[in-house]
Structure formats: C-alpha cells, structure tokens
Design brief:
This is Endonuclease. Keywords: Metal-binding, Zinc, Zinc-finger. Residues 894-911 have a biased composition (Basic and acidic residues). By secondary structure, this protein is of the alpha+beta class. The chain has 29 helices and 22 strands. The strands form five sheets. Strands 3-5-4-1-2-6 form a six-stranded mixed β-sheet. A five-stranded mixed β-sheet has the order 15-14-13-16-17, with helices on both faces.
C-alpha cells in the first residue's frame, strides 16, 4: 500500500497543536487507526529533544506504556498550559486593529485570542463588539454603528467591503496622478551671497550664515542676531547689508497661487503650502500676541493683520461666562480654502490700556487660537513698541570678545588662586569596576579625547588605582565625551517600587515558587509533595501563571523576597488592620498574609500612638465591709456655691459626712477627719484619689500614726473611687434643689434626710447600719436582708457593666502602653513592675519613672520586630492554659464581746 505524505521531525518553534493536526491528517490519509501504532509513530518521528521531554514528564514510567492521546495531552499541557480565563478575556477586549492590518487579519487574531475565553454561545456577539470597537477606522466604525440588527457576519462583510473600496480608490487616484502630473517649471527666488557655491549637494559648500563648510539649514547660528543689521539668521561677518557685499537680487513677484517649493538639496525635507512666497530662506517666526481683558477675563489673542474680522474659539467663549450668541451670516475660509464652522457672533466688553468699549467678535468651533483682526485693530490703539520690541546689542560686544578671547574661546578654562580638594568618607571602602568595551567606531575618537585631556592637564596615567568607574562614551558635535559612570557607586540607593519584573525574578529564583510554577504549567501530582507546598496545593485548581508570575485568581502571589516591600507599600498611609487587609486582597496574596499584615500594624509606633483607648475593663465592685466604719471613701466637692466641701462615705452603712472647707490643705483635711473620728472612731481603711491633700507627707504620717491603711484610686480614673464620686453628685443635686436656708442649714437638712432614708444598695438606712438603731423621725421603714440585697445589687450592676467591658490582666514584666495624661505622646511604653490593686498596676517607663494606672488605661505592647510569617505553620503542642489566680480576700471576723441578747416579741404584738 503506498504511503501518502511525509512526516517531519517536530520543530520546537512550531506550535504543538498544529503539529498534531498535521500528524492526524497523515494518519487519516494512510488509514492508520490503531492507537498503539499512532503512539509508536509519534515517538519515532518526534525527534530527540521532544522524546527526552516526553520521557522526563512521564518519569519513571516509560513512554511506550502510555496511549497516544495521553502523550499528546501531556506535551500540550506542558507547552501550552491553559491560561487564565480573566487574562484571556483581558487580551481579547484590549485588542485593537493595528496600523496597516487588514480587517480579516484582525478578525483572525480575535478568533485566536478567544480560544480560552470560554464565550461559548456568546462568541459571535463578542467578536462583533470587538470588531466595531477595535476597528481603528472612523469611517468604518461610523458605518457599523449606523447599521441596525448588526451581527458578526454582516459587520465583517461591511468592514471588508469598505476596506477593499478604500484600497481600490487609492490605486485609481495614484494611477491618475502619475499619468497626468507634469512639471512645466520650478521657480525658486534665491538671494545671492558672496562666495556661495553654485553647485548643490557638494560637501565643500560654504554656509551663508557663518561662512562655515556645512549646509545652511544645519548651521548653529540660524537663531543668531546680526550685530550689523540686527536681523536674525546670520553673523555680522556674513551680513548681506555690508557695503562690500553686493546687494541681493530682488526676486520677482509671483502670481498668487499655491506653490510647492523644493530646495535644491536633498537634506531639506520641510514642505509648506503657501499663497504667496517672496523669500524661502527666512525662518518661521512666532506669532505676535497681545493680552486683552474681555468681560473682565484676560484673553491672549494673536495679531493677524490678514484677518478681516476677529475670532475667538469655542473654549474661550465658554470661559467668558454665559453669553447669548447671535446668528452670523459671515463665511470664513482658511488659507487652504476650507470653510470654518461658525457658531455665531457675540458682543463683548473689551478693556486694553486706555480703551474700554463693546466690540463684536465671531465665535468659531474648536480650540484654535484667538485672532485679533483688522476690525478690532481700528478701535484698539495697540502699543506697537512692546509688540515689535527689538533686542539691542552693545556695539562694543565684538571688541570685548576680542579683548577677552581667553575667556570666551571654546577651550578649557582655569581658576587661579583656588585649590580644589575632594572629600571622601574615611570609612568608605574603595570600589573598582572593570572597564567596558567601547564601540570600534568610537575607539579613535575616545583615544583622541584622552590625549587632549592629558595635554590639558585634566587627567594623568597611573599604574594602579583603588577607585575606578567605567566610561560612558557620548558623541556630541562629532566629538567624543567620556564621562565616568558614577551611578555604579551609588550602591546605597534603595529601590522601593515592586514591579512585575522583580516579582518574576524572585519567583524564578525562589526554590518553592519555581516548583509551584512548574506544577502550574505541567500539572500537579495526586498528593501534596511537601508541607510547605500545602497552601498552594489546596488552591491548585485556582492558580495560574502569566509571564512566569503566579496568580491566584486576579491576585499576584508575592514571593518572600518582596513581601516586606509590599507590606510597606500597603501600610504607607497607616490604615487599620481591616482596611489594610481589604486593600491587600485586591492585589496580592501569599500564605499567612493576614498575620503578616496584623503584625505590621501592631508593631507600628505611629499607629499605636493614635489609637483610641481600649474597651473598659469589667466592673470590679469594692468588697462590702462586714462591719460599719471599716472603710471610708473620701473626696472633695467644689468649688460649689463658692465653697469647698469634703465628702466622707462609709462603705458599709453608706453613712455620709459633709464638712465645709475653707481650704483643702492637708492640715485642714486632717483637722476635719479628726473631728469626724472623734464621733465614730478610727476606720481601718481610707480610699481617696491622688490629690495633693491625700498624698502629702503630713497626711500619710497622720494615717500611719492612727494605724489607717490608705488606698489611692488609679490616677485619672474617678470610677475607682465611685462611692465617693456618687456621694458628691448626690450632695450637689440635693443642695441645688433646696432654696431656703443657709448653706449649713441645707447641709444639716440633707444629711438627716439622707441618713434615715434606706439606701438603694443596702435597703436599709445608713443610720440603722452604723448605729444599729433608727433615728427618731416621722418615718420608720422596714428593711430586708441587707447583705443579700447588697450582693444582688452589685451583681446586677456588674452584669450591666460587663456587657460592654472586656477583662484584661497583665503579668509582671509585661510590655504595655500606658495612657499619658500630660503633654507629649498619647501612650507611653513601659512594663509592669507591681500589681497595686485588683485593677491597678505600677508601670516603669522608658525614662525609669514609675507611674500608677488603672487597667482601663493600659494596652498590651508588642516589642518584636516586624516578622514576615512563614508560608506554612507547623502545629506544635502548647501547654495548657494557666488560669489567672483570683485574688482572695479574707473578711475580718471578730469575736463578740458580749453574749447574744435574747430577742422576744413585745406583748402588744401578740394580740
């Protein structure tokens, strides 16, 4: 049986899918249906490199044990991994028809890009939309947009037909021009200058501007001003107005028309369309402009004496405010004969120097320059001296140039009397970089420049140097300049931006990421290869790669080398943890990214200093004393009613004492307390704030002499002494309500009513709890079990308080931030040295000062440096949680001094 076709060895530059398609055609032509035979033919003709690739991909399994379809799919997945659907759609929707690209070629490229977009049933609609949007031809696009019920086939037919018609029209026009074009005569008026070469295109031509041996259009004195005639374009030595120079020929005036002048040298490529030209040598000049004030708005206009009317652009018209346009019957044409779109005419108020009045101006469509025409020039008296100002040059300039030729000559100068010195850091290590090869064409110029620099004394040859930088040859004015590449010495420069090229380099360099990239391209194994691969293995169906950069969905996977820079970029504006995570999840991902972002925020001093105070700690009620007058709470109230008052509250009975204070010195405070103690006795404990009267040495000595323990509440935390604070509030409210009587009479009345009234916490009056009897009054109240009611009331208060509270406890030596209530930072770093109360701590600051703060004014502080969390976590056994020790307080118990009295019911109650 004859064999049809020929099998070629697979070429690496050929698309694998196309090669398999040709191979399938060969099998069909030769009626080869056996799958095993197809496999053997493929393995025998694929070539050495391809066979090695197949064997490496199947290792340790031999290729001849796999089917033909499996081998084809394996190589296809390796060479052409399925790209991300999002990336494929992005490329498809970003494709625009290139310049010179045919419509059918553009459509073919769109079909190729849509292969992995998974458009399915919507493919035709997407191809139609992309064709219309990306056609890059205004005429075709407008034609397609005007078509109703446009589908892809119809859009392709219309676009192809219009493209073909445009190409045919160009061919017809080109043929007509080439057959009809005739050049009868080319006249170019030319000025004659002495010693000017008559032949064009000769390298020895003399420039009429400076007399040099080069073309005039390349002369560097094109913008120079002549000292003789004050005109721009030549030097005084080549001035045509000198007496020894012949007068230039006056060109004859040509008939008005459009002429295309072509210079007789091939170097000049500029071409201009003009109506009338008298001198093709004169350079184009900038337009003359003047600033007018139109409707109180400064407007720049170009002076155009060739324009019969003044015009302004549509953009300038909008800037003048809301003006009403009138219809204009005028027709304007450009110098090329094209009609200008006129929007209308409007009357405006114009102010210029001494002129102030209303003028009419035409508004044209577009954003062109504003023209000041002859109609306005008649009304405005322009300051022509400012407009046509001529720069003057001192006639002695030439003499100065000759007298000080050493300064102005194009050579190296020298400064005398000054010694230059280079300052180098003593600790800086010398750096030596090898010389770079230079282009052969510049070698001679570089050597000549080195000889010149050595002759000028700028450089000198040395046998050895600790410092060296390669030269960077730069050609300027046909001479070679050889500066050193000093940028190589700036090794301290730190590039902070993270780019895709950096991420690609880090990905390929990192061992773990290179393995992940290999699995993404060639396929994942059935089981996870290693522990550190677990985060990627769990997401293997969602990973893709683009230009050797790993992607998880639309998020770029950052290797460990670039995570610190990414975190710094994310935290640049110091957002919170939640906002920082939200921003990061829009762009990047890596294993344990959230922990790294949290550590960055928690270790940022700036973020910690401006944070709000933490949630309030759970309520910690004072222990109810078992006997009256055991613990007193003291505080000052005032200035109130032009007085200061000292409030004393018994924690057990809620008995209240109020003393009027002339001054709140320690001496007066001690005197008032002695007066109270003389009535009720000496307490065991006194609770007060940190006011000077309670923290002075005299007050402490007074307490020490009487055996009284002092407890100071946490600074700037009045709630710690809540019983006294509440008593102050109750006292003030009662005093405000009583209108008659002196201050002392009001105090006495308030104290009596307060002491006989059952307290809301205890359910009994303070007098009954303190004196074990009722004070004689008009009312006699029955009270329940006092201790149980107090505990229940405290529990209720604690329940409601703890709803918004958060329990915190700090160990000794714990790092914390303490609230600063003075000037300076809001939070001060320190560590715990002592627990001074159930919710109070002593903190040693960084300056060794020791302060005392309530737990509500403390926050934990992390001192570890920012650490980038690893890609995986190894579970380790953790010790069981150690429960904090609860403070236990032993209630003081006292033995009764007297036998318990027998209680009997009165006789009058028995009936």
């Amino acid at each position: 049986m004859p064999t049809y076709g020929k099998l070629d060895t697979y070429d690496e530059s050929e698309d694998w899918n196309q090669y398999i398609e040709r191979l399938d055609s060969y099998f069909d032509a030769n009626e080869i249906d056996d799958a095993e035979k197809k496999r053997n033919i493929l393995l025998s003709v694929c070539g050495k490199a391809t066979y090695k690739l197949i064997r490496d991909l199947l290792s340790p399994v031999m290729p001849n044990t796999k089917s033909f379809a499996d081998i084809v799919k394996l190589v296809k997945d390796h060479k052409h991994p399925a790209p991300s659907e999002i990336i494929s759609r992005f490329k498809f929707n970003s494709r625009i028809r290139k310049e010179g690209e045919s419509v059918r070629g553009f459509v073919a490229e769109l079909r190729s890009l849509s292969e992995h977009c998974n458009y399915a049933a919507t493919l035709e609609a997407m191809l139609r939309d992309r064709l219309v949007v990306g056609i890059n031809d205004d005429k075709i696009q407008r034609r397609l947009l005007a078509e109703k019920n446009l589908d892809f086939a119809k859009a392709l037919e219309i676009a192809t037909a219009m493209e073909t018609a445009a190409d045919n029209a160009k061919d017809i026009q080109a043929s007509a021009v080439s057959s009809n074009a005739q050049i009868n005569q080319v006249n170019k008026p030319r000025k004659t200058y002495p010693n000017q070469a008559q032949a064009s295109g000769v390298s020895g031509r003399e420039c009429y501007r400076c007399g040099g041996n080069h073309f005039a259009n390349k002369c560097r004195f094109r913008d120079a001003e002549c000292h003789n005639c004050k005109k721009v374009g030549h030097l005084s030595k080549k001035c045509p107005n000198k007496e020894e120079n012949p007068k230039p020929l006056k060109p004859r005036r040509k008939q008005k028309g459009r002429n295309h002048y072509v210079d007789d040298t091939s170097d000049e490529e500029e071409q201009y369309d003009m109506f009338n030209v008298e001198d093709t040598v004169n350079r184009l000049t900038e337009p003359y402009k003047v600033v007018l004030e139109i409707n109180k708005t400064p407007v720049t206009m170009e002076i155009d004496t060739g324009a019969s009317v003044s015009i302004i652009s549509e953009e300038t018209f909008r800037d003048l405010g809301k003006l009403k346009l009138s219809e204009s019957k005028a027709k304007l044409k450009t110098y090329t004969g094209e009609d200008m779109a006129i929007l209308g005419t409007v009357a405006v108020h114009v102010d210029y120097e001494s002129f102030s009045g209303n003028l009419h101006v035409i508004v044209v469509k577009g954003r062109g320059p504003n023209l000041l025409g002859r109609d306005w020039l008649k009304s405005l008296k322009l300051n022509w001296n400012e407009i046509f100002a001529v720069k003057s040059v001192d006639k002695d300039v030439d003499r100065l140039l000759e007298d000080y030729s050493e300064i102005f000559k194009d050579e190296l100068g020298a400064v005398k009397g000054v010694t230059a010195k280079n300052y180098v850091n003593e600790n800086e290590k010398p750096r030596y970089f090898k010389a770079r090869p230079v282009p052969y064409a510049l070698k001679g110029k570089i050597e000549s420049e080195l000889v010149r620099l050595e002759e000028c004394g700028i450089i000198q040859p040395v046998q050895f140097s600790e410092w060296a930088a390669p030269i960077v040859p730069v050609v300027k004015d046909e001479k070679a300049s050889i500066p050193g590449d000093t940028l190589l010495l700036l090794q301290h420069f730190y590039e902070t931006s993270v780019t895709s090229s950096k991420i690609k380099r880090w990905t390929l360099k990192n061992a773990l990421f290179s393995r992940v990239l290999h699995y993404v391209k060639s396929g994942w194994p059935a089981k996870c290869p290693s522990v550190e691969m677990r985060p990627f293995f769990d997401r293997r169906n969602e990973l893709s790669c683009q230009d050797d950069i790993l992607l998880w969905g639309c998020r770029v996977i950052i290797p460990p080398e670039g995570r610190k820079e990414i975190i710094q970029a994310l935290h640049e504006a110091h957002p919170g943890i939640s906002r920082m995570k939200s921003l990061a999840r829009s762009y990047v991902w890596w294993p344990n990214m959230d922990k790294g972002l949290e550590g960055c925020v928690l270790n940022c001093d700036h973020c910690q200093q401006v944070r709000d105070k933490p949630p309030e700690a759970p309520m910690h009620p004072w222990e109810w004393p078992s006997r009256p007058w055991s613990r007193l709470h003291v505080d000052f109230a005032g200035p109130f009613m032009n007085k200061m008052f000292m409030i004393v509250v018994d924690a057990h009975s809620k008995w209240l004492e109020v003393c009027v204070m002339k001054t709140i010195t320690s001496e007066n405070t001690i005197a008032k307390l002695q007066q109270i103690f003389s009535t009720h006795g000496i307490p065991d404990t006194i609770v007060s704030d940190n006011g000077p009267s309670f923290t002075s040495r005299e007050f402490k000595q007074f307490l020490q002499r009487n055996g009284i323990k002092q407890i100071n509440s946490a600074p700037y935390h009045p709630a710690s002494n809540g019983l006294a604070e509440k008593a102050v509030q109750t006292f003030k409210q009662a005093m405000k309500k009583m209108k008659s009587g002196t201050i002392q009479e009001k105090i006495n009345n308030f104290l009596f009513r307060y002491r006989i009234t059952p307290h809301t916490t205890t359910g009994a009056s303070p007098a009954e709890l303190l004196m074990k009897r009722k004070l004689k009054s008009k009312l006699d109240l029955v009270f329940p079990n006092m201790e149980e009611k107090v505990v229940n009331k405290q529990n209720i208060q604690k329940h409601y308080k703890d709803k918004t509270a958060k329990e915190r406890d700090f160990d000794l030596e714990s790092k914390v931030y303490a609230k600063n209530f003075s000037s300076g930072d809001k939070w001060l770093p320190g560590y715990i040295t002592e627990k001074s109360g159930p919710l109070s701590y002593r903190i040693r600051l960084s300056d060794d000062n020791i302060i005392r703060r309530h737990v509500d004014h403390l926050r934990p502080r992390q001192t570890a440096d920012p650490v980038i969390t690893p890609d995986f976590e190894i579970e380790t056994s953790t010790p069981s949680e150690i429960k904090p020790l609860e403070e236990t307080t032993q209630s003081e118990t006292t033995e009764p001094r007297y036998p318990k009295r027998q209680k009997r019911e009165p006789a009058y109650l028995k009936d």
